[in-house]
Amino acid sequence: MALTLDPRKLEGVSSNHASHSNRIHPAVEEEEGNGSLGRRVLYDPIQKVATVVNSALDEVAHTINQSFEPVKQKGEEAISYAEKFLNSTNYEVTFTKTDFFWTCISIASFLFDMGSDISTACFLYWDHDTKWWFSLTVAFIVVPNVFINCFSLYWFWNDSQGDPEVSTARNFNIKKRVFSKTYWILRVCLHCIFFGPVVRYIDILYYGAKWQTQSKSQTHNNPIHGPYCEDKHKKNKDVDYSYLLVKEQRDSAMLDFIHSMIQDAPQLILQVYILAYRPTLQVKPANPTPRISDIHVSTALVQAISAVFSLISMSWSVTSYIAALRVYCTDKPNMSMGAMILMFLWRTFTIAARIIVFALFATVHSAILLYAALGHWVLMVFWIFLQKTQFCNEHSERSIKEFLYNMVVGGIYIFTFLNVKETPSRYKMTLYYMIQLAEDVALGVLWFIDKETQALTLWYHIPALPAIYGSFFLGIFFMCLYYKFAHPTKGRDVLNSEESKASFLN
Q1: Residue 277 needs a FRET pair 20 to 30 A away by CA distance; which of 1, 97, 198, 439 works?
Q2: Which domain covers residue 476, as residue numbers?
Q3: Predicted confidence (pLDDT) per residue in 448-494, tens digit
Q4: 213 plus 344 within the same structural domain
Q5: CA distance 310 to 316
Q6: Overall number of domains in the chain
Q7: Where does a domain end: 306, 330, 354?
Q8: What is the pTM of this model?
């Protein structure tokens, strides 16, 4: 007997089973309904709290962003200012407030330096047993100033004859200037009292103001430029003050540089030497119990002030000279304020280390120091000669002038480095400072272990060497900062670029 299933019956069974299975006990259904309601009762407040918290956090974040927006803007402005402070892309002849400030700094540096040297000479004259040092101090004041002021007057006279120097890159347009008798009398008198450098700084301020007026007048009178637009203002112009400004900046910087090397350097060594040597006289067996009055604190204080101003003058003269050359050369961007500050600090600390070690070593072996300095000078002159500089005349054979120039720069190399030829200076500078460090270490150690030095109970015997080498490496640190962040990227600091063939002997 075959078993047959009626589909209609199966459908009815399945539907009945489904309806039966869907029927839930009322108690269970009520329990499940109460659980769902409980979950909704718990979930809704949490969701509301989370929404409120999220809204509050968003509001706080928005408020914080608004609050820190000015700080962010100030930070961006500070970064932008730092970049402008350290880097310069300006190639134009300008005379800004910064240039005015630096010129005033140069005037103040000269006056304070001269005043401190004269004050030192007076105090040494009033002291007993210091007449020899007084004579040397006066000689280091008078002789360099006579030389520099005569040199400055000669350059003024040369300018009055019509300057043959023409800068094709700058396209300066200048006619022969006529100087009155009053002009000459006033300048000669000021040079006779050793104020020649100040006269030139005043000229810079005057030419800078005139150039500002002239440039504004040119823009106002001839706002349209073109190949067929005649600049009547330029055509009728008697003097190009931009040329006079740039030339005076270069000449003043060069004179100040020479002045610092022939006056400030020997004066600085002399005064530091006296400061280091006089205490040795107080503690020698001949005078074992010195009185405070014998030490002459006032004179020592004036000498220290004079030494500081001489050091500042030396460092600033190198910095301003290199900056002036960059203004004069068209293919090199001008130095920024940050670059000048870093270079000034670099020169100050390296020169200070050199001066101190020279002065200390001279207290025990002055004759040997002279031989060491002479040997360094000969080595540097030979090195400069091998570089085949062409400072005096680029198109002729090496002349007596060129050799004298090499000798002068060799003297500068006793204290600091200058790149004398248009070539990368990294390896030359590294070699120079390695030689200087070796010399400073040798002189310092020989002074420290000297029997006479060890026999004297000098207060500076222990801290002297750390101060010397710390100053040297601090200067190298500022030099690295200068080349890393502030060195103009379009050129190099050089002493004799093609546009700056202004010989010391012109």
Answers
A1: 439
A2: 335-506
A3: 998 777 666 678 888 999 999 999 999 999 999 998 888 776 444 44
A4: no
A5: 10
A6: 2
A7: 330
A8: 0.73
